[in-house]
Amino acid sequence: MRKLRYLWNRITNMDYKKMYETAKIVHQRCGKNTLATMADMIWCGFKYMAGYMDYLVFEFYRLNRKQRATYVTRGVNDRIVRALNQEEYRECFHDKIKFFRLFSNYLGREWMDLRDHTAEDFALFLEKADRIVVKPIDGTGGKGIEMHDVAEIDDPTSFFERVVKEKKYLVEQYVTQHHEISEIYPRSVNTIRLVTILSGDEVHLVFSSIRIGNGKTVDNLNSGGMAAIVDETTGCISTVAADKEGKIYTEHPYTGTTIVGKRIPMYEEAVAMVKEAARVVPQIRYVGWDVAITEEKPILIEANYFPGHDIYQFQVHLKEDRIGLLPKFRQALENENLF
Description:
Shape: globular
Strand order of the largest sheet: 7-6-5-10-11
Number of strands: 11
Distance between the termini: 14 Å
Helix content: 25-40%
């Protein structure tokens, strides 16, 4: 019934113009007939709960049925979130202020909720920082984030009044990342995305990657960033990087740094930290953690109760068999009747 409800919602709310444009992109890539591609997209929506962007990003047009069945698609990801993350507790992650309070032991930086402070308090906060980050408390994908050098804020009171008016209530000290991470790209904090599933008494790590900025001050894929897989055994980047447009990077275009083989400092400590943090709100069992590596330790930047699945299965990151991530999710949830 849930699958049928999902499919009905997708059918009635589908942007068919964008679907057609996506089908044309597929035609340009491989020569497949546009209308035939649209028909295949619709079939994949019914069979695998895959959206048209799944079809494009995961290159379903190159896959057979057995391969397609191994992918965490949009619908599959929705299903996992609904099953594992209790709705009444999701606000603990959606509201960044609540998240910061719950996970204060893992943040490693000063922050403040402007709703609880005055302009004078804000001015004192600036005295303890060289650079700050200002965020809306419920933003995603890097939207609405501002970064400012404190020396450039001439009038703290006017600045305070402006960001409060825009409902950007969260202010935090800018994170200075480990120099080895900055060597890849220094203009953004390049976060390690670690995805965990809490099943019974065990926390399973089901996905491990690094997100890297590209020309901007944020590392989000929706803002032009790229991602590469981090090997869970070695803590080294094990694949080339790729962005959502399908561009592949063996070296970073900004720094020229070779991406494959780059070691993530304190990677084991980062994994241990998120596995510990995964138990803080046990009612939210499926979480995507964004971790920064500083010179001293790994720290949490934020976490998502609805992890973006688009990063999971770039074709360039998969083995020759092109098997997706779903078998790993099944293994983590083998004692539960979910799939």
